Amino acid sequence: MSAFPLREFASTAQPSVDNGPQFPNEPTSIEETGLGMGFIADLVLKVIYFNGTISAQRISEQTCLPYLNVIDKVLQFLKMSEYVDIVGAEQGFGERSYQYVITLQGSRKVNEVLDRSQYAGAAPVPLAAYIEMVNRQSIGGMTINQQRIREAFKDLVVNDEMLDKIGPAANSARSLFLYGPPGNGKTTIAEGISRIMGGSVMLPYAVEIDGQVIKLYDPLNHAILTKPEMRQDDVPAPFGAVATTIPPAPDRRWLHCKRPRVMVGGELILEQLELIFDPISKVYEAPYQMKANGGLFLIDDFGRQRCRPEELLNRWIVPLEKKIDFLALQTGKKIEIPFDVLIVFSTNLDPKGLVDDAFLRRIRHKIEVANPTPNEYRDIFRIVCKSKGVPYSDDGLRYLIQEHYFKVNRELRCCHPRDLLDQVLDEAKYRGQPPQMNKDLLDRACEAYFVKM
Predict the structure, then answer these.
(1) What is the reported pTM?
(2) In this predicted structure, what is the pLDDT of residue 16?
(3) Which residues contact 346 (CB under 8 A, 6 or more apart)?
(4) Which of 16, 24, 123, 360 has its CA 20 to 30 A from that of 249?
(5) CB 399 within 8 A of CB 442
(6) Does 181 share its domain with 75?
(7) Do both 114 and 184 map to the same domain?
C-alpha cells in the first residue's frame, strides 16, 4: 500500500459543496446576549480605555454587539455612573458617532476591572450557547461514501483496500490510529480525511463561564469562510421611502469557518491539553482539542512528545469513551466540554511499545500504512516526473531499484521519488544539463540523499 500526493504532499481534491450552518440571530437586548450588564459594561470600559477615544459605532464593531438596545444601554449606564464622558462626535449619523473617553473616576474603575481580566475583544458567547452549537453541527451526522473517498484521494496513489479502510474510519467520527514506516503518507492520509469531512462550522471568538473568558478562535487553526458585517439598522429610512421588513441580523460574535483541522507533533506537552491561563491578562486559551471541535485533531509523530506516551494516552481515555472532556478553571471549578473530534494518532514507532491493549480497545480504527509495492513505487515515480518536468525512464527506474534498493537491502518509501527527483534537479542545474533519469544523476542523487549505515 502507498499514499503519495502528486503535488508536494498536498492534494487538490475539493470538499463537497456545503452551504454551512446558519448564524444565530443578533441579540436584541442585553438579556439575549447571555451576558450580564456588569460583564458587558466592564468590556466596553476596557475597549474605551485601550483606545483612548472611540466612537459608539467602533465600540459596537470591536465588541461585535449591536448598538441598539445593548451598547447604547451600556454607554448610558457608564455615563450615568460618571465612568465615561462624551467629547465630541466623528463624521456620521446620530448617537453612534459620539466619541467617548474615560473620566478620572472611570480610570479608578478600569484599574479594578483590569485586575480581573484584560480581555477587550469580541464579546464572548455563554458556555451553554457554545455547547449547543457544537452538538448541533456534530461530525457524527456526516456520511462519507465510497465515491467521496475515491474523489478525495484521486490525486494520491492509494489502493482500493486502503481506501476501504479509510472510509469507515472517517465515518466513525471517533478515533484512528495510523502506524507504519516513515515517509509513506500517514500525515497525508489524515489531511485527506479532513478534506473529505468537508462542511463548515460556527465558532465563537470566545466563550464565557462565570465571568471568565476562554479564547477559542485561532487564526492558525481556523479558516474563516464568512464574517458577518455590522448592520446600521437604526439609521432612519429616507423621507417617503416604503417601509420594508428587515430580516434578523447575524450575531457577529460567531464566525463561519471550515471544519477545524488541528495538527500537533513532537512539540505537544500535556499542559496544552488543558485550559491555558495567562496570569498577566487573566484570560484562558482554549486547549487544542476544544479548538478542534467539529473537525479533526491530528497528533503526528506520536510517541516523540516531551511527555511519556502513557501520560498522553491516559489523558484521552475518558474523552474517547464518553465524548466529553473535563477542563478546570483556576477557581478549581470543572466544566464539561463536548469532545466532538475525529482524533488521529500517527506514528512510525512500533505500536506495541507505545500503547497497551486497554487503549487500543478504545481506538475505533487501526490502519497500517505500509511501504509501497514496486508497481506502486513506479506509478509514483511517473507522476512525480511529470509534475517536475523530468522525462520518465523505465530503464532508469530499474537501475535505481536494483543498485540502490535491492543490493543494499533498502526499503521503498513513498516520499523517495519526490526527494530523489529534487536531488536530480539540483545536480542537473549545477552541471548545466537537462534533468534526466540516467545512471550518473541517479547515483549522485542517491549519494546525497541516503545516509550510509
Answers:
(1) 0.83
(2) 38
(3) 178, 179, 186, 187, 190, 298, 299, 300, 301, 302
(4) 16
(5) yes
(6) no
(7) no
